[in-house]
Amino acid sequence: MLVLFLPAGAVSWRWLQIAEGAVAAWGEGFPEIGDSEAEPVVVVPAEAVTLHWAELPDRSVAQAVTAARLLVADASAAPIAELHVAVGREDGHAERPIGVVSAAQMQAWLMLLAANGVDPAALVPAPMLLPRPESGYWRADLGGEGVVRGPTSGFADEARLTELITGGVAPAVLGREELEAAIVASVAAPALDLRQGPFARRRRAAIDWGLVRRLGWLMVAILGVTLLISLVQITKYSFAADSLERQADMVARQGLPHGETVNDAERQLDARLAGLRGGGAGFSSTVAAVYAAVRSVPGAEIQTIAFDQTGALRATVSAESEGRITDLQSRIEAYGFTVQRSQIAPGAGRFAAMLTVTAR
């Protein structure tokens, strides 16, 4: 694993390489990063980050960050809208570390790293590389930058500031082996990562092929059940249609004369119905229409009437004028029938004609 130290003041890029659980090499300048190498953990200067510790809600990250922003707003001179606040967790301690840094500074760091082809796995404040002391303070030199760490504090080592915070107590200096062991442990599981909220690392969505296969089988099952339901409904409707057809055939048989051989009940029933009421619209309907038309035309009379099996009604009618016979024809047609008229013949002061009335 590669650990990068961002430039700070006159100090340029620094780095260290971790291999097999130990620091394998230290170096200055920007290192060459292989394509197969994992993204490095980046350490940001202690002087650029303000660290606080406080007991915060532990139900969700959002609640913890909201509470931390309220605490920071009271302790910071800068507007809270211009600050980036990150919350971490340190072992099982009740107090949680809070990192406060300018949002513009975060952007500048990420842009600098992107320009060098780096998308850091984490941004860790330099004091968080040191172990948390049970009491007192630890001090270490991280490649030219001195940092101090207390149980609930972490800052850049400056003579007057350090004396003020420690109350004049000189911090204990970490040896090289202790420092390297602390760095290895810290970068393996950072207690505080500034890459949160709007600066969180974007992760590429991985395709869960197992889930895809399960969803595929679920879709096949749904389609199979849907098809089965459709087949059951089709079978049910087919049985119902056959039952209705049998019932209709039974009713039709009941309407036929007793003893008649049944070949096609529907056709035979239609034939019997036509025989009873006559063809076409039937005798009753046709005669009713003709008589209604005669009553509506003054002076019109029916002299003869005949009805045949084809449903045609032939009526000899007379009236006082040719126009009245034409009116009678129009009235019958208005009832929904077709009327064919013979030539109008005069006789005995009246006019007569043969009307052939059929259904349309």
From TrEMBL:
Belongs to the GSP L family. Residues 210-358 form the GspL periplasmic domain. It comes from the Bacteria. It is a single-pass membrane protein. This is Type II secretion system protein GspL. Keywords: Cell inner membrane, Cell membrane, Membrane, Protein transport, Transmembrane, Transmembrane helix, Transport. The chain crosses the membrane at residues 211-232. It holds the Pfam family T2SSL. The gene is gspL. It is found in: Cell inner membrane. Residues 40-151 form the GspL cytoplasmic actin-ATPase-like domain. InterPro entries: ATPase_NBD, GspL_cyto_dom, GspL_pp_dom, T2SS_protein-GspL.
